[in-house]
Amino acid sequence: MDKLRISVLGDGGWGTTLAILLSRKNYPVTLWGAFDNYTKLMAKSRRNPRFLTGIRIPREIEITSDLKKAVSNKDIIVLAIPSQYTRGILKRIKGNFGNNTIFLSVTKGIEIKSSKRISEIVRAQLGPVKLAVLSGPTIAGEVAKGIPTTCVVASTNKEIRRLLQRVFSTERFRVYTNSDVIGVELGGSLKNVIAIACGVSDGLGFGTNTKAAILARGLAEISRLGKAMGANPETFSGISGLGDLVTTCISKQSRNRFVGEQIGKGNSLKSISKHMQMVAEGVPTAKAAYALSKKYKVDMPITKEVYGLLY
After folding, report:
1. CB-CB neighbours of 107 under 10 Å
2. What is this structure's pTM?
3. pLDDT (tens digit, 9 = 90+) per residue, 100-142?
4. 114 CA to centre of own chain
5. Catalytic hit among 74, 116, 191, 211
6. Do 72 and 269 form a contact (C-beta atoms < 8 A)?
7. pLDDT tens string 204-219
8. Is 191 an active-site residue?
């Protein structure tokens, strides 16, 4: 297992953090970013000033913008690409990886045009590859600093989830396993929409009572949609459901909560997006979640209101 070669596609805060975590465990790691000038800057400075300030990137990590090189001869490929760009990147890597390569999605979002989860997009583009998803209350900066964190890796294949549990677990990063891929993906994606609602509440100057109400009712509607889509309702009361929801709705570092807060203060989505370096996945996911609620005939009042505010 020590010789597993791992590639992380996506040099945002979370992709960079996972590359660092794996490198600290002595795995040979490649980190891929889409922009050549920026990957060269990272390779030279061993920093990611745009997405992960104050954290040094180990010299052992290979940083590249060459996608074919990044995925060739890898045992595990971690997908840390924003949801709306995932399909395009998968099209580009087709045929450049081995039959036994494991794909691990760590992206928390749903594609707007298809309303598909990331694992569904992977299957549609790459066929029956080995696949898992990782989600949970994992603020990148905290994980990079070694602050105790938990997450969940989900796969329908028991061997794959157990292998990934061993690969990613550290003394301060505890990985649980689950077979409910749908539930884990939906929990990680839909909580971003509820976090925008909590941010709006903050921006309007409302209190803890209001936020608790949005949290509790938000979890109820996430669970309703999840059940309709075939997820195990119990998943939503666990780490990748309630745990992630609480973190994203409360943390000052949450991008989605921040977007909501700015909207609550009267700013437009266009002006907010212009000043943000990182993607707030809840913005596109609100549109996809609203479409899913109509498709599955599930009542999701908070999601409906967030969709109305944004679009």
Report:
1. 31
2. 0.96
3. 999 999 999 999 999 999 999 999 999 999 999 999 999 999 9
4. 18
5. 191
6. no
7. 999 999 999 999 999 9
8. yes
